[in-house]
Amino acid sequence: MRRRVLAVDGHSMFYAQQKLGWFFDPRRLMELARQEGEVELGSAFWYAGLKDPNDQRPFRDALTSLGYTVRTRPLRELGVEGESRQYGRANLDVEVAIDLLTVAHRCEEVWLLSGSRDLDRLVEVLRAKGLTTIVFSTEGMVARELRNAADRFVDLASLLPQLAKVDNPTTGVVRRPSPSPAQA
């Protein structure tokens, strides 16, 4: 049985999903990662930057109850003194690298949901250790270096039926964002 590890860069995926126009369901992602025959999901990580310690608390609690290990860091505040606050990235790339290198000896395959160029060297090292690395993102939101470092790239756009949040699980209906008046 092959063992797989799943790592989700929450910041990168938030923007990729906005670009796609739909959001994926973390539960469905976990199911997809377990779906293929003879695969065991060994670990699942979710990385998120927080404005404050209570930011996204219900979402983080839900992720934990689904089986994700949630790693967080405070967002770095950027901006000019005297202006309103602007938040930057939390930069969890070190945490991603440490977690994946820590579990590398217990798995054969890594699913990395990110577009960050800063993770390309990590992917190269994981491949050198013999792991199959698959990067999930979407066109225009993934660094060429990361995509080239991976064994395979999967465009999230192709996974809409398997991953999209559904408003009504019995009918499978996905609500799309309403177009703004300028788009209508």
Topology:
Layout: E1 2-9, H1 10-20, H2 26-35, E2 39-50, H3 57-66, E3 69-74, E4 77-78, E5 86-87, H4 93-103, E6 109-113, H5 120-128, E7 132-137, H6 144-149, E8 152-155, H7 160-163
Parallel strand pairs: 1-2, 1-6, 2-3, 6-7, 7-8
Antiparallel strand pairs: 4-5
Query: What is the CATH architecture assignment?
Result: 3-Layer(aba) Sandwich
Specify the CATH homologous superfamily. 5'-nuclease
> Given the C-alpha coordinates, what overall shape results?
globular
Work out the helicity level. 25-40%
Order of helices and strands: EHHEHEEEHEHEHEH
**Cα end-to-end separation:** 50 Å
The strand line-up of the biggest sheet is 3-2-1-6-7-8
**CATH class placement:** Alpha Beta
- CATH topology: the name is Rossmann fold
Radius of gyration: 17 Å
Q: What is the averaged pLDDT score?
A: 88
- Secondary structural class: alpha/beta
How much of the sequence lies in strands comes to 15-25%
Report on the biggest sheet: 6 strands, parallel
Low-confidence stretches: 171-184
Number of DSSP-assigned strands: 8
Count of helical stretches: 7
How many distinct folded domains? 1
Task: Describe the protein.
This protein has about 180 residues and is an alpha/beta fold. The protein has one domain (about 1-165): 3-Layer(aba) Sandwich (Rossmann fold). The protein is built from 7 helices and 8 strands; from the N terminus they run βααβαβββαβαβαβα. The longest helix has 11 residues, at about 10-20. Residues about 170-184 have low confidence and may be disordered.
